């Protein structure tokens, strides 16, 4: 472990040398342009997937299954991690980004279709996913194999997180909410590492999305229009 830590710290030294003056404008406050909600996965490089190396530009959140909800004594609410920049920094764009082959969606799918055996903390997170995926499992097309089913449910999960944001009284109605999928398994038609937009403000049809957002039409694609 010490060798790994030493290598990481050497990498941080390189990082710090390149950012000496770039924190000047954000040392005392932050006004991020977007909140990104991604899955906690070592293969999902949150800033790098957007080509971003600007401090203060993106407010990045990650958790198992790119969820926007947490469970409280009031029931399910939009997570404070996501709400913080919206409420306190006037951030007007939220991007929920799933990814192909998501392990959290896979585990939730297995829990709905078979058995689940996970530690309590992981089981809690998966429970927050399962409640939103149950109807999606029932909608899966006949003949879809396991891999296809999971990637369909990745999109379905993103859609449900967008629904939750749009339904919340705590998220200002003028906030733009976008759903996307990061592909590193050659599932979509683009290159590995490309992000595909699957939902904007609740619109999920490819035809509708391209009509509404022609400037990003080449990056709009869905595997499953249910």
From TrEMBL:
This is carbonic anhydrase. GO terms for molecular function: carbonate dehydratase activity; zinc ion binding. It holds the Pfam family Pro_CA. Belongs to the beta-class carbonic anhydrase family. It comes from Halobellus limi. The keyword Lyase applies. It is an enzyme of class 4 (lyase). Zn(2+) binds at residues 39, 99, 102.
């Amino acid at each position: 472990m010490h060798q790994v830590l030493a290598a990481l710290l050497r990498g941080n030294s390189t990082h710090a040398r390149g950012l000496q003056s770039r924190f000047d404008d954000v040392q005392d406050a932050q006004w991020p342009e977007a909140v990104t909600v991604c899955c906690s996965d070592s293969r999902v490089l949150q800033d790098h997937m957007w080509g971003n190396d600007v401090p203060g530009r993106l407010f990045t959140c990650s958790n198992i299954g790119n969820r926007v909800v947490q469970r409280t004594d009031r029931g399910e609410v939009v997570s404070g991690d996501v709400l913080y920049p919206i409420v306190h920094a006037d951030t007007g764009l939220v991007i929920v980004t799933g990814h192909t082959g998501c392990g959290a969606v896979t585990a939730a799918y297995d829990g709905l279709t078979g058995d689940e055996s996970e530690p309590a903390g992981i089981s809690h997170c998966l429970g927050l996913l399962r409640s939103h995926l149950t109807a999606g499992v029932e909608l899966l097309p006949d003949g879809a194999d396991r891999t296809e089913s999971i990637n369909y449910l990745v999109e379905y999960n993103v859609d449900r997180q967008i629904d939750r944001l749009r339904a919340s009284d705590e998220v200002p109605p003028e906030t733009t909410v976008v759903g996307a999928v990061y592909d590193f398994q050659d599932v979509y038609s683009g290159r590995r590492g490309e992000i595909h937009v699957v939902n904007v403000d609740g619109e999920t049809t490819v035809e509708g999305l391209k009509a509404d957002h022609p400037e990003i039409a080449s990056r709009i694609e869905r595997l499953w229009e249910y």
